[in-house]
Amino acid sequence: MHSIKISLITAVYNGEKYLKDCIESIKSQTYPHIEYIVIDGASTDGTISIINQYRDVIHHFSSAKDLGMYDALNKGIAASTGDVVGILNADDMLAGPNVIAQIVDTFQAHTIDAVYGNLNYTAADQNKVIRKWISRQFAKKDFGMGWMPAHPTLYIRRELFKRYGGYSLDFGTAADYELMLRYLYAHQIKAKYLAVLIVNMRVGGMSNANLTQRYKALINDYRAIRANKIPFPLKALLFKKLAKIPQFFA
Predict the structure, then answer these.
(1) Pairing between strand 60-63 and 84-87?
(2) Radius of gyration, alpha carbons of the chain
(3) Whole-number Å distance between alpha carbons of 22 and 72
(4) Burial class (CB in 10 A: 0-12, 13-18, 19+), 3
(5) For all residues of the chain together, what is the average pLDDT?
(6) Which tops the pLDDT comparison, 111 or 242?
(7) Quick one: which H or E segment has residue 234?
(8) Which CATH fold topology does 6-248 show?
(9) Of the N and C termini of the chain, which has fewer Cβ atoms inside 10 Å?
(10) Cβ contacts of residue 221 below 8 Å, gap of 6+?
């Protein structure tokens, strides 16, 4: 059987604080066929020094000013050569050494385009779980109720990026949400839910930095919903926000 090659992409800018944890979680994977790509946005801290320490793990690296994280991810996708593409943020970690092996097993066992799973939001030191994003196998109608998979857990066949495009830079911090709506709802790709913890993600993020950023994120979410013709977009937006509440009690 053909060995599936996984391209993992990390976009980073001034990420020296947690980047080592991110890379070590990739280095510890038991699955051998991983292409690791790091796209740096011309960092001015110690990020490049850390990257240089792990050049034996990193198969492609570039450092240049860009238009933000999603522009960097598009560059990483363009440079990738794997069968499947996944994203790992610079301050996140794969949840265990067998994560990629389990993802590959799922691709090999099913005729599918994508795999997604569960995610934990953790404190900065990762010693405390703040909330748990436990997903499920989706139906198309779920998007109208605000459902979405956890983006950092989503692994997609690379050929689909050529067919349906990468991250749109027109939706701000909702670019990942828009891409998932476009792929899973508008184009109805075949995705399989893998009921395992895939990523430990530190709380925070661009869209939650302050009230202004949260307002912009709300508007961009709404625009993404409208762009992909989700019925009753205001309802979908409301339920998307409400869906976070049960995660604190999972």
Answers:
(1) unpaired
(2) 17
(3) 17
(4) exposed
(5) 94
(6) 111
(7) helix 233-242
(8) Spore Coat Polysaccharide Biosynthesis Protein SpsA; Chain A (3.90.550)
(9) N
(10) 174, 177, 237, 240
Q: What is the pLDDT of residue 67?
A: 96
**Alpha-carbon gap, residue 118 to 131, rounded angstroms:** 11
State how far Cα 76 lies from the chain centre: 13
Q: Convert 207-238 to b/e letters by CB count within 10 Å (16 or more is b).
A: beeeeeeeebbeebbbbbbebbebeebeebbe
| 48: its two tokens | 């490049």
Within 10 angstroms of residue 104's Cβ, the number of other Cβ atoms is: 21
CA 133, 138, 141: angle at the middle one, nearest 5? 120
Task: Give the closest residue to 29 by CA, choosing from 84, 103, 85.
Answer: 103
What dihedral do alpha carbons 67, 224, 241, 136 form, nearest 10°? -100
Residues 24, 90 contacting (CB under 8 angstroms) = no
Q: Which amino acid, residue 190? A: K
Structure tokens at 218: 């709300």
Q: How far apart are CA 149 and CA 133, in angstroms?
A: 9
Structure tokens at 62: 């570039």
Phi, psi of 63 (to 5 degrees): -140, 115
Q: What pLDDT, in 10s, does the model give residues 174-211? A: 999 999 999 999 999 999 999 999 999 998 765 555 78
pLDDT at 68 over 90: yes
Q: Are 33 and 98 in contact (CB under 8 A)?
A: no
> Distance between CA 21 and CA 27 in Å, rounded?
10
Spatial distance between the Cα atoms of 146 and 240, rounded to a whole number of angstroms: 4
